[in-house]
Every structure is written in C-alpha cells, then in structure tokens.
Amino acid sequence: MHVTLTKHHGLGNDFLVYDRAQGEQPNWPQLAQRWCERSTGIGADGLLLLGIGSNSTLTMRLYNADGSIAEMSGNGIRCLVQAAHHALQGNAGTVYTVETDAGSREAVVTSAWDNDTIHISVDMGYVEDVETPDQWELLQCDPMRPVRHVSLGNPHSVVGVEEVGPVDLVQLGSLVPHVNLEIIEPGPETNAITMRVHERGAGITRACGTGACAAADAALAWGLVPRSVEHVVVHMDGGDARVVITDDRRATLIGPAVFIGSVSVHA
C-alpha cells in the first residue's frame, strides 16, 4: 500500500505529516522509525498524524524519530496546521483548534502564503513547574547554576550557561534521554536569549518550540530578559522564534512553517 506524506519544517525542526483520511496503520512506531531515518528513509525529526474534522478542528499525534510518542511539539503543531491549512485552502486569520495528547491548543494563521511559508501563532498553554527528573544528578550541575524543570505537556529541563556553543550537549542529553534538555545564554539583544536543545526521542535538533517556551519562561524568571519586553526572541540553530509569557505563565509561540514537498511511500 502506498500513501502520501508531506514534509515541513519549523526553523529547521522537520516533520512528516500523514493525513489519517488515507487510513489507519497498525504499526505507527515502526513506520515513524523507518520513514524518519535520514540515511535509509525520508528523514525527519518526527511523524505527525493529522486528523481533519469539522469547523477547523484538527487532531494531532506525534511519533518521534525513535518511534516514541511526544505529547506536544511547538514546531510540529505549526507544521501540522500548515498541512491542514493547505488541504482546506484556508485564508490568513483562520483559527484552528488542535486536539493533542497534551490537551487542546489554538493556532492562528497570521499571514498569507509567501511561496511555501506561512506564519502561525500557537497558544501553548501554561508553563508548569515539575519535580526534578530521574537521574538528573548524573549531569553534575554546579549548584550555583540556574536550573528550571517545567512542563508544557511534555517535560523540559532548562540550564543557564555562559556560552551554549562549547557545551557537549550530546553527552549531557544522553544522561537524561527522558526529558528535553535546553541550555540558554542571555542575548545578544536585551530582549533575547540563545538556546540549544537535545530533544527526547530525537537528539540534537535545530529548534524546539516547547523548549523555546520553557527557555523564555526561565529567562524571565532569572532576569536574563526584562519582564517589560513585548516578547522574548529565542535564537536557535534553525532560526528565531518569538515567545510571549503572561504573568500567569501562559505561553504563546510565534513562528514560521515551511512546506518542503510531498512523497509517496510504501506503508
């Protein structure tokens, strides 16, 4: 059986999207591993399953490249919305309700198409503090170093560093593979931070949307960015996202989604 996938990226964080109208498959974890493999498959950080309902209601299920389920992805949800927006021939200003494993999220398409790109604002829900993850002591963080453990429907640990570049993030991430690990440094602008990420189930990625929200929340709490700013700019290897954190820690993520292409594959 052959099916069609579309490929998209949000700031270099790339995903395959499968429209569930094509039929269900009994082996999603294995298909995610096969299709996302970069040397022998199509290549992606994850596989998104898209369900299109009535009244601009969508469903989202995300399988990481290793076949595990991720409850939420800020870049992934924009890619999923872009695929639906194209299929439905939607206009700028369209509001989509997306049912995810982390709960309901609202996404607004804020621009018209610019070649293969649209911009989307997503209500990411509340940033909530969580307990220190298992095996965190293996990282041997300096107790004076700022650390914040939070959830946006999926687990994040944010660590403040002087410079993100020299850090061996592959090694550190391998010690806590069950969480998304972000390291951040202030600037270079007064309203910005610079972030690198090791994602649960995917490893080093060029960007992480929920991670950007967790990092922005930490930066505001630590005073790396003044609370008076309209939004926090999060610089990542794949590009820049904008994050708004309200006083009650509700996060909004704003960024692009880019259509790469479509492919027919054997399921």
Automatic annotation (TrEMBL):
GO terms for molecular function: diaminopimelate epimerase activity. SUPFAM superfamilies: Diaminopimelate epimerase-like (SSF54506). The keyword Ribosomal protein does not apply. InterPro entries: DAP_epimerase_DapF (IPR001653). Keywords: Isomerase. The keyword Transmembrane does not apply. GO terms for cellular component: cytosol. GO terms for biological process: lysine biosynthetic process via diaminopimelate. Transmembrane segments: none annotated. Belongs to the diaminopimelate epimerase family. This is Unannotated protein. It comes from freshwater metagenome.
